[in-house]
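Q: My collaborator sent me two sequences in one message, no labels, and asked for predicted structures for both. Can we handle them in order? The first one she listed is below.
A: Yes, handling them in the order given. First sequence, followed by its structure tokens:
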Amino acid sequence: MRRWLAAPLALLALTSAAAAAPSRVVSFNLCADQLVLALADPSQIAALSPYARHVGISAAAEAARAFPVTSGSAEEALALGADLVFLGPRDRLATGQLLGGRGIRVERMPLATSLDDAKAIIRSTAAILGHPERGEALAARLDAATAPPGPAPSALPYERRGYAAGPTTMLGDALARAGFRHARPAAGFGGFVSLEAIVLLRPDVLVLNGPPARAADQGTALLAHPVLARLYPPDRRIVIPDVLTVCPGPGLVEAITRLAAARAAAMR
């Protein structure tokens, strides 16, 4: 009896999700852009945020070129006939109130600081868009990118001016899932690390957000320091662009995949 009921109930659930799915989705948030592009039908997407096509800040800039972008105003969302608008966690309060007052569904994209956060956001966004199965599939891709157990080389994320993201950030969690050990395990969200501290810590690898560059200013001078060049030649530097770890989504899958491959190479 239960088997006979299971198929109709599953079909009913899918039908209900499809019936409730929004048809005019507008995103005013960079992370929402990327999830909408990954999880929604193209026909559902009315417009994306002003930043969606910017290669330097969006991991889905190329895919975003196929869709209109806005300046982020409530008037544009109304003119587009939006029935769902994504905003950031705390921005555009007046815009959200205005749109909500017009009967438009407004969803705020939460911040993620771990892969568990990311998977929860992916699943909830997919359900809101009417495609929960796509959320499960993307979450499964994140899990699949995780490295198998084994030796854990130490790694230190390092940015201009000496800032190092800590283990309780998305990048820090991605490092752990890829099989690395954070060189500063008690650093929380992170902080500034001097050149002298790096020499003392001697992490196995540095994780940078871009390829080595000339010392164009004081911020990049530290990264180009001769001591770092000697201790960390190219084969001990891993480049993971910021755009891959800022938001939940396919970019995060790519970041973990790259890190896991670098860890495997370091173990050879």
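Q: And the one she listed second?
A: Here it is, processed independently of the first:
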Amino acid sequence: MTLSPDTTPCRREEAGVVSVKEPESRIITGSVATRGLIPWQALIIPGASSLCGGSLISNSWVLTAAHCAQGVSTFTVTLGSTSRTSAESGSVTQTLRSALIHGSYNPVTVANDIALLQLTSAVASTSFIAPVRLPSYSQASNSFAGSGARVSGFGRISSGNSNVSPNLLFADVSIIANSECAKQFSGILSSNICTLGSNGRSPCNGDSGGPLVIQEADGIFTEVGIVSFGAENCPADVPGAFVRVTSFLQWISTNSGIAIRA
């Protein structure tokens, strides 16, 4: 897939701002995303056959999970698309040759499961492609427990089906306290954030690296988590664990040059 011409008028989009209403159609554990609803979503193919997600956090950088990047030398990154299987007008695909993985990433404990991908060329913001907002330093002490959030990705569509979704899906979930999450998983760190969904809604295999966002009082979406790990086969009513983005703001800024709000 190569750069496709955009048939809609281009306009500059602010980070975390969307102008598309969410759809009502449902599929098993989530809803199919309308184009432009989640314009920061990245579809990442690490190597030849794996599948991960990511988020556009500036016009040059994509945020994802370290376990999606470890041991991989080539990444195919697609932005602006809600289809995994067919080209869409206005989407952009780039092939990247390296990733910046957190120096303290531990594949055994899954600590510091965060990585950055630098695009080969900057992308312009359009109706379908726009960065998500990062948290501010002042939000570093906020647990976000009790907040509603949204997770998105192209991963498995149910705990009993190994097939991944051909379309971008999203699910609305609730952020829970780390103490609750620790009842399910040992080794939950302060640098993790967890969610619990209803009716089996949760991230699953293939969603790794994708964004967990909240919509703040100003209406803008802010990424607070990166899909990291969960229970095998993604059973219903079991929390999903994410990287807590506020724990890595300085690392993101130092390595990408992105200015973080105070």
